Amino acid sequence: MNKSIKPSSNVPVGDNEQGNGQQTQDSPARRSHAAVCYRMEPSKRMLSHNGCHFSHLSGDGNHMPPCLLCNQEHSLVELEKVSRVALMITPEGSGEVVDQAWEAVSTIRAILKQQPVPMTVTSQTVFLRRAEDADVCRKLFAAYFGDHVPATNFIVQPPCGGQALAIEAWALGGEGVDVQFPQPNVVTVAYDGLRWTQISGICPPPSAETAYQQAETAFDELAARLAHAGASFNDVVRTWLYQGGITEPEDGIERYRELNRARTDFFDKQESLGRMSIQRGRAAFYPASTGIGMAGRGLAVSCLALQTQRTDVQLQPLENPQQVPAFDYAKSFSAKSPKFSRAMAVIIGDYVTTWISGTASIVNSESVYLGDIEKQTEQTINNIERLISPYNFERHGMVGAGAHLPDLAKVRVYVKRPEDYEKCRAVCERRLGPLPTIYAQADVCRSNLLVEIEGVAFSKVSEREKSSERGA
Ligand code: 3EB
Hints:
It is built from ten helices and 24 strands. It has a domain of 136 residues: CATH 3.30.1330.40. By secondary structure, the protein is of the alpha+beta class. Helix 3 runs parallel beside helix 4, helix 5 runs parallel beside helix 6 and helix 7 packs parallel to helix 9. The longest helix has 18 residues. The chain starts with 27 loop residues before the first helix and ends with a helix. The chain binds 3-(2-carboxyethyl)benzoic acid. The site of 3-(2-carboxyethyl)benzoic acid has 12 residues, from strand 15 and strand 19.
């Protein structure tokens, strides 16, 4: 526990105080600006030790004027000495692309500025309405971030609200955090004996023509960058694969099936080179993943790896008891099955981070509730709830761990048909409560799936279970 990273509960937030612990409270310069300087409240504050919520700081919580910048949603996660912010930013949506991008970046900046410790944006995913708009965003990021551009994935998935873009950004800061930018689109984060590597924006060149070649080239490039960063596929906990024309045939075979064939071949090759051990204990160990469509015919991939020597760190892939593991899907779905786990739990001491793969309305191996967006959304959320439940963790041998829907820090909701957005969102809001979310239009890898949801949950190993373990 470290006091300096926690928002001080004794800072009054009134009409003329911003309550930003980063600066001295009584600085005259700040006072003169305070009237236009509003705190943007997090949607969620998670794992906080002091139980201090901004709603306490702002009295009855209703003094807050409407946000001056974007429609912003963010979660604050405090993991002992390190704080993370997950930001899901959707601009208001009317201006030029560059204006919307500035609006989003300014909002991210304002939210990070109000944190009590300096924060670094390590990765971002930019959901674009049009592929051509990536260049404008790239220039803006270069100007704003300089040598520290986060690992960035541009994906052509129009935000459902009609905006030119939306941005998911992850930032962190705190005592002993070391962030490096060794190569473009490669960011490493080290603290407390943990080393995370985020690699993004791997887009095969146009010379990689077929879906198979694109996937092969992208995975090879990921492996090369991992190696450059001193890591390997053995350390990868999460992958994201955005594929243009995912359900379109190519020489008579669906592009997603070709991607699965290339991924299987790649993992086999990595294993034969000793860079990946797929069989760990009695179970298969595949990263959690999202495999989803985007506009165009390209492919964009990213991954997250974790390296550590710590003995109190455990990686646990999770399967859903109500779903056939994707890697065991029958050949009728894909000649080479999709090699991913339903989720990856990363247990660090008492803290559990659960990366939830893209999850859809699938029971056993079958898509269910065909044509019904509301029921598909419900089933998808039920699948997530069951997947991350303490019961499911226990089934995987981890007693006292597990999470519930309120432990989600953010989700992305991929909606296939724009006209389903409002209905889908109503179900999500009812089931998930206030939660930073981006809704984007994307084809799901089976043409009968209308929605897919991915997310991250943060939870703690229960004290009761630990003490009973100690007592045993
Ligand atoms: C499914 O359950 C839906 O190919 O990496 C979800 C998550 C899906 C990841 C992937 C595919 C992938 O089969 C599709």
